[in-house]
Amino acid sequence: MADSATLPVSVGRYLIHRLRQLGLGHVFGIPGDYVLGFMRQLEESPLQLVGTTNELCAGYAADAYARVTGLGALCVTYAVGGLSAANAVACAYAEKSPLVVISGAPGVRERRKRSQVHHMVGAHDAQRRAFEPITAAAVTIEDPLTAFREIDRALATCLARKQPVYIELPRDRVDMEGQAGHVPESGSPASDPDELAEAVGETASMLAAARAPIIIAGIEVHRFGLTGALMSFAERHGIPVCSTLLGKSVVSEKHPLYAGTYVGALSRAELVEFVEGSDCVLSLGAPITDTDTGIFTTRLSPERTVHATSQTVRIRHHAFEEVRLDDFLAGLAVQSVPVFHRPLPPKDNPLEQPWMPRAGAPLTTGRLFHKVNSVLSKGLSVVADPGDAMFGSIDLSVHEGADFLATAFYATLGWAVPAAIGAQVARGKVRPLVLVGDGAFQMTGTELSTAVRLGLDPIVVVLNNRGYLTERFILEGKFNDIHNWNYHQMPALLGGGLGVLAGTEDEFCKALDHAIATPGQFHLIEARLEKMDASPALRRLGERLAAEAKG
């Protein structure tokens, strides 16, 4: 594309140009008449448009793509498309995933006539207003003279906050030329130097007085590209590192300083004792949520904790509101901090023991995760749906170069299968290993149709216990039951892939080994489990949630 500063450029093509400049390669979406003009421009551009089976799945796929690459994009039509995708956008907002939502809309001329056009819900701006609470910025591009500036501002906000933004394109503005000579603004907000110096100095003093420090790495470390800086600091000073559940795999789980995934009382006892016995805790990029804290079962004294996120740095009982997380880490890197020699907790992880199937033994959740852990490699990322698919994954050991992807805070069921599509489109050489419950699979599992169409080869393990297991541990009832499917026969419906039913350890072992050894098509393994079989972590979580439900 020609330089937008010298040649006339349409609004739609400028948006495409800027997305490409930011490194985007794919856009996920579903066509509709209000967005067809922009989709035509997408097809004519180097960006690849990836169609999915519905807008919600497109949103989940784009969210996962953003988590892997640093930016994702979703393109939908007005109202019936955008509002269908809203849940996926809310998930991205809650979990800080930089997603650009592009929606077609009735033209400005149509709006001025106050026309009641199809898909409307009340006023013409109803969809934009609906997206305001679940995006960092929501704009409608109406004036060509300010269009480029509004697009730039929205994209800058998306990248600065690592949260979704919403850009509404009225269909009669897509081909209009914007302001000639426009040059995108650059720069980002800086930390307040006095606050930064005080926060860094106080943290360095706490470390200087410590004997057994720990770093807790949260999801923002990955979102803001700070893994290298954090691990460089940890290595220089010999400080052990653990991750939160939402932040699992943000640091290499094979690193000699990695202690484990700390989720309060949901974690192994020896890890809980190690973390909570630390005399200085640096919690970096880890927002305090119920799932990351094991339903608020963490026992970390504010007197010995530094809690730094993208929004604030809290040390003991005061806060610094104008300190950026990257500046804070950079400031710590040049401080005089001791070198520590703290041994890690015992590696008493049953999943790390050698795996050997017991012929004919009924498959259990614990043994399923044990087998999964034994096959993980740099070429396999784990994509886990909420429920035992996720909580059973806490002690999986994800390899460097692979990812652990899960909606561990917003916890929207049905996320994992379409997310695996987005993750593999983003990084084709890394196969997703999807862990999903049967209830969640019934919501979005048919998105494997897109895997067939695109030639993707995820491995999908459906944990079939005939209902909503997590909810059963909170409050049992018939409302937790679902109709049982023959999940392993899904490939026949979709015209591709391979399905296998596994009810014993040796059947599951054989099926998973075969799936890994034969790429090129998706593999679906239906793991038949007992109705109330659950991982130890889920049992502990269920007890906590049941107590919360009773008040």
What does this structure look like?
The protein has 551 residues and is an alpha/beta fold. It has three domains: 11-170, 3-Layer(aba) Sandwich (Rossmann fold); 193-333, TPP-binding domain (Rossmann fold, 3-Layer(aba) Sandwich), CATH 3.40.50; 350-544, Thiamin diphosphate (ThDP)-binding fold, Pyr/PP domains (Rossmann fold). Helices cover 37% and strands 16% of the residues. It contains 21 helices and 19 strands. It has helices at 11-21, 36-43, 55-69, 82-94, 108-112, 126-131, 144-161, 193-208, 219-223, 227-237, 269-276, 325-333, 365-375, 388-391, 416-426, 438-444, 448-454, 469-474, 490-494, 505-517, 536-549, and strands at 26-29, 48-51, 72-76, 99-105, 137-140, 165-170, 213-217, 241-243, 258-261, 280-284, 305-308, 313-315, 318-320, 380-384, 404-406, 431-437, 459-464, 498-502, 523-528. The strands form three sheets. Strands 9-8-7-10-11-12-13 form a seven-stranded mixed beta sheet. Strand 3 (72-76), helix 4 and strand 4 (99-105) form a beta-alpha-beta unit. The protein is globular. The protein starts with 10 loop residues before the first helix and ends with a helix. Mean pLDDT is 94; it is low at 1-6.
